[in-house]
Amino acid sequence: MKAIASWSGGKDSCLACYKALKAGHEIASLLSIMSPEHKRSHVHGIKEELLALQSKLIDIPLIVKECAGGSGEFQEGFLTAVRDARDRYGIEAVIFGDIYLDATDPWADRMCVELEMKPIKPLWSMAPAKIMEEFLSAGFKAVVVNCKADLLGMEFIGKPVDEDFLSVLAGKDICPCGENGEYHTLVTGGPLFQGAIQITRATKVLRKGFWKHWSLDITEWEVESSKTRNWHKTKRSRSLSSGRRARKKGV
């Protein structure tokens, strides 16, 4: 099934894409919703340039939609972007990295009812510990770029997401996936990527929003080429052909 993937740049959306591709779905495009004021993704706070770099390394085109952070504005921006993608690519479904939030009335399901499209939620109802085990064992790499200041201190910003980090979360009784917004990540490499992002300069910043949170302001980075890939060539080729066609259309 041809789909667009909701893409935050973090671990959950990345693993959802990976599992969707392995299940045989074709991803025509990634979709990121950005703050028009800060030019960063909502919640994660990742710069558009880094999201575009991820898109390039994965070889799936990225659609960026700017909209304000209010729930109504965010929802309308999301719906508009997906409808535009449907008209352009003929997509039938949307891939989400949702796990268990809004279990009684999932936002993803409501959006897809509005769109008359199918939601694909590869992580839905999986145990968070199992998700993190699968993410790490697949070979993905990620760093913490955002965390709630009252739960995790400045020292966690920029740290790799690994077994040591997960042990700290367990000791604090925090969801391994940070599903309640405890922390957010930037995926820097893994089996979907043709290279690894190396952060070379960044600043830790304390910000205020819905709550105080530490964030990583990444200002410089490099890409390390990857010569060996742990990826199924047949499944990947379906996605790559879509990406090349989409780029010719100016995405």
Any chance you could write out the topology, listing elements then pairs?
Layout: E1 2-6, H1 11-22, E2 26-34, H2 48-58, E3 62-66, H3 71-89, E4 93-95, H4 107-115, E5 118-120, H5 128-137, E6 141-148, H6 163-171, E7 183-189, E8 195-207, E9 213-225, H7 233-248
Parallel strand pairs: 1-2, 1-4, 2-3, 4-5
Antiparallel strand pairs: 6-7, 6-9, 8-9
Q: How is this structure best described in words?
A:
The chain has 7 helices and 9 strands. It is of the alpha/beta class. 38% of the residues are buried. It has a single domain, classed as HUPs (Rossmann fold), CATH 3.40.50. Helices cover 34% and strands 26% of the residues.
- CATH topology category name: Rossmann fold
List the quaternary state of the chains.
Answer: single chain
Task: Tell me the strand percentage band.
Answer: 25-35%
Q: How are the strands ordered across the major sheet? A: 3-2-1-4-5
Question: What is the name of the CATH architecture?
Answer: 3-Layer(aba) Sandwich
C-alpha termini separation:
21 Å
- Rounded to the nearest angstrom, the radius of gyration is 17 Å
Instruction: Return the average pLDDT rounded to an integer.
Output: 87
Can you give the helix content as a percent range? 25-40%
Number of domains: 1
Describe the main β-sheet briefly: 5 strands, parallel
What global shape is seen? globular
Number of helices: 7
Kindly state the number of beta strands.
Answer: 9
CATH homologous superfamily placement: HUPs
